[in-house]
Amino acid sequence: MSDESDAPSLAHLYAERTRRGDGGIDYGAWRELVTPETVNLTYGFPFPDSFPNAELLDAAETLFEEEPERALQYGGGDYADELAGIVAERSQDRGIDCHEGEVMLTNGATNGIDVVCRTFLDPGDAVFVEAPSFTWSLAVIRSHGVETVGIEVDDDGVDVEALEAELARRRREDLAMPKLFYTIPNFQNPTGVTLSLERRERLLDLASEYDFVVLEDDAYGELRFEGEDVPPLRSLDDTGRVIHLGTFSKTIAPGIRTGWAIAEAGVVEQLGALHTGGPNRFTMGLLAAYCRAGYLDAAVPELREAYRDRRDHLLSCLEQSMPAGVEWTEPAGGFFVWVELPAGLDAEAMLEGAIERGVVYLPGRLFYTTETGGQHCLRLSFSRASFEEIERGIAALGETVAARLAD
Ligand SMILES: Cc1ncc(COP(=O)(O)O)c(C=O)c1O
């Protein structure tokens, strides 16, 4: 249709969940103010030089040379078939005892969340999430018409005592019990914190006691900068109730749109039944050729180092530029730092002034499912901006906070 203004509205035909806006995100008017000159510390995008263009080209050549008639055919070739096994091998290295029949490939972790929700949830079901948690995941979960209940996060990840208290309260008051708990245990988005081993074990005990699925989103698990890995929830679980999600978005490229879910074979089969648009077989073949050439194993240590340097730079800029009373997390991996402003400052109300000074961040409110959560908090991403931009952006943020405090 050439003239959009003449297009008939189809809004009256939208599904109820679409009309409720459950799957959307209300960012606020500030997005209109951002210009190409604004230092952008909002989204968790990998930095452009991290993309392995030459290596992917080489993998594509391998694929076309070795499987010229099948690389692009329905079903793909042997490389495409190999990818689930490669994911299983790599997951075993991280302590998850699994085989390829327990791996379902997805169009990224987000698609994995959607398929799990479609498989387990009915409208009106209760889902527990971390508070705060990743905006997009929350939007996907809420698009299923469920009630989301946020459980507070502190420096050791989700507060399992608060979780236990809420579970007990709901049981006592005969409220809907959660079917699913969605957690990002490593270098959480948005706080950067990691769930301690003790809390992981307690979470699994509670999941057994109250009978819910634990959806473990491990998007950043391979990007640890220092210290020991904490075992994935899936590796600690002997009841089969953890579904583990991973993605190549952060270690290869988001444009690849490929991730995975690891669960019991029967659950994988059930997930597969609803998973009508799985990843394309050509991309799967390409990724398998890329991994078999050793490119991913070589890239991960380099990525860890590069993101660690960025984190260090951001933290030292915060140290230099933030007025007293501002606090922030120091993540041991991943892409994000969570900043808490002195009580009374509103990070969203402050955003326009920050953009005028040349920096944009995401206000804390976006990471909560309640109206009032995270008002004095904000998320900074150190994954994409250059060192110079980080310096300039944090200086602008410091000036903005100082000006607000002086008001
Ligand atoms: C916790 C978390 N899960 C999932 C995703 C998205 O993963 P994918 O690109 O594989 O859908 C992100 C990306 O920002 C994330 O931070």
What are the main properties of this structure?
single chain, about 400 residues, alpha/beta, eight-stranded mixed sheet, four-stranded antiparallel sheet, 13 helices, binds pyridoxal-5'-phosphate
Q: How are the strands of the largest sheet arranged?
A: 2-9-8-7-6-3-4-5
Helix/strand order: HEHHEHEHEEHEHEHEEHHHEEHEEEH
Shape: globular
| End-to-end CA span | 51 Å
Structure class: alpha/beta
What is the residue-mean pLDDT, rounded to a whole number? Answer: 95
Biggest beta sheet attributes: 8 strands, mixed
Q: Strand fraction band?
A: 5-15%
Radius of gyration from the alpha-carbon trace, in angstroms: 22 Å
Q: Low-confidence parts, pLDDT < 50 over ≥5 residues?
A: none
Instruction: Please report the total strand number as a whole number.
Output: 14
Instruction: Provide a count of the helices.
Output: 13
Small molecules (ligands, ions, cofactors) in the structure: pyridoxal-5'-phosphate
Estimate the helix proportion, in percent.
Answer: 40-55%
What features would you describe in this structure?
It is a single chain. With 407 residues, the chain is of the alpha/beta class. Helices cover 40% and strands 14% of the residues. It is built from 13 helices and 14 strands. Strand 10 and strand 11 (336-340) form a beta hairpin. The longest helix has 27 residues, at 295-321. The protein is globular, with a radius of gyration of 22 Å. The termini are far apart. The mean pLDDT is 95. Residues 44, 108-110, 134, 137, 184, 189, 217, 219, 247, 249, 254, 259 line the site of pyridoxal-5'-phosphate (PLP).
